[in-house]
Design brief:
Layout (H helix, E strand, L loop, with lengths): L10 H14 L4 H6 L5 H9 L2 H7 L3 E5 L2 H8 L5 H9 L2 E2 L5 H5 L5 E5 L1 H4 L9 E6 L5 E5 L8 E10 L3 E6 L6 H4 L10 H7 L3 H9 L3 H7 L4 E6 L1 H13 L2 H9 L2 E2 L5 H5 L3 E3 L14 E6 L2 E5 L4 E11 L2 E6 L40 E2 L4 E6 L2 E6 L3 H5 L1
Parallel strand pairs: 1-7, 8-14
Antiparallel strand pairs: 1-2, 3-4, 4-5, 5-6, 6-7, 8-9, 10-11, 11-12, 12-13, 13-14, 15-16, 16-17
The structure holds 2-acetamido-2-deoxy-beta-D-glucopyranose (4 copies).
Length: 393
Amino acid sequence: MMLSLEKSSISLFLLLFLAITTISSAHNISLILAKHPEFSTFNRYLTLTHLASEINRRQTITVCAVNNAAMGDLLDKHMSIYTLKNVLSLHVFADYFGSKQLHRITKGTTLTATLFQATGEAPGTSGYVNITNMKGKKVGFATEDNDGHFSSNFVKSIQEIPYNISVIQLSNIITSPAAEAPVAAPADVDLIDLMSKKGCKEFAKLLQNTQISKQFIDLMENGLTVFCPIDKVVNNFLPKYKNLTKNGQISLLLYHGIPDYHSLGMLRSKNGFINTMATTKGKNNKYDFSIKNDGDNVKLETNVVTAKITGTLLDEEPIAVYKIDKVLQPSELFKSQSINSDNSAMGPSSGADNGDGDSNDDGETTNNNGGMIMNVNGGWFVTFVLSIGLVFG
Ligand SMILES: *[C@@H]1O[C@H](CO)[C@@H](O)[C@H](O)[C@H]1NC(C)=O
Ligand SMILES: *[C@@H]1O[C@H](CO)[C@@H](O)[C@H](O)[C@H]1NC(C)=O
Ligand SMILES: *[C@@H]1O[C@H](CO)[C@@H](O)[C@H](O)[C@H]1NC(C)=O
Ligand SMILES: *[C@@H]1O[C@H](CO)[C@@H](O)[C@H](O)[C@H]1NC(C)=O
């Protein structure tokens, strides 16, 4: 486990927490489908693509299965497992549609977000599925861009556990050129090239300049998650970066990697501390940060800044690369400056980008004493951040 907690006594809480989460995700899609041999191929591929665990982790979900014949047609296309994962993830909806809901769609048509959309790999709105009630009680399924043609129809309900999981049968795989587009196998991924092309060129340069990129690349086969700050924030951060010692720079870069694979779904279901590649076994080099979820936002909180995941460059087990909107500053290298209350409700930044690339979105100003002055509805609060870890432990 990558979770590192402040105090070992808290591990009891962790155990309790794990016990509760195990109970709460009560469904097991593999088990549900195992009762129906005609879906055995679909079931096998849910496991092979690791979508099964993603489905089990979700609280509200609809799985559109196809029978072995329809899976045979799909497999005849000889797609890589990574492409198959995209195709199948288009058949998992992040919402609950039992037979009843399908036949009672408001205005007879709706768009629903799929796990393909959630991976961030779907271009534009290609990760949405259009469900439409048609003549004769038929329910059609197609991608959002469909020319009025529905490639797939509702056949029957397989199992419904309202409103946790609905497993239904569709006549065919939903045709989607976007989902069927070939995906490079992770081993073929050029991490530096990928980052450079997708908005994280400056961060990639820093990795190369320090030759730290090798440490990232070495982990790619066994599991790696990278959070790369976008170019603008890296550029603004450069003066601070150059101020660090060589070792400090290396630790800062390693702080942006986790030596393990975490899909967005896994990050969403996580709340707690996580070790990074900069973490060493020792007393004062924890270099961890905490992951917090509010709604659909995944936030990374160091004691100095809170960054948000703003996009996915790659999410193919065993590698995930996400874009973040701030440089992660470990408290081992920078003074703790802000407490991270959940104040997203305070509205957008009032142009507080002061050139450090680390200004918080919430109009906070920092002083130099490790304290923070925050303007809340016109009143001033001064908060001192000493053992923030205890709050989130
Ligand atoms: C649905 O999920 C909730 C928790 O997410 C669980 O408490 C409940 O028992 C589940 N319902 C059924 C019918 O399994
Ligand atoms: C779900 O069921 C499958 C098949 O019976 C089993 O191998 C797997 O361990 C189960 N998963 C969980 C999380 O219980
Ligand atoms: C779904 O597709 C049909 C056919 O192209 C279209 O008429 C309908 O407006 C679409 N529904 C939504 C919600 O976009
Ligand atoms: C660089 O370090 C010096 C000395 O600690 C400090 O005064 C200065 O503000 C730092 N510059 C930046 C950009 O952080």
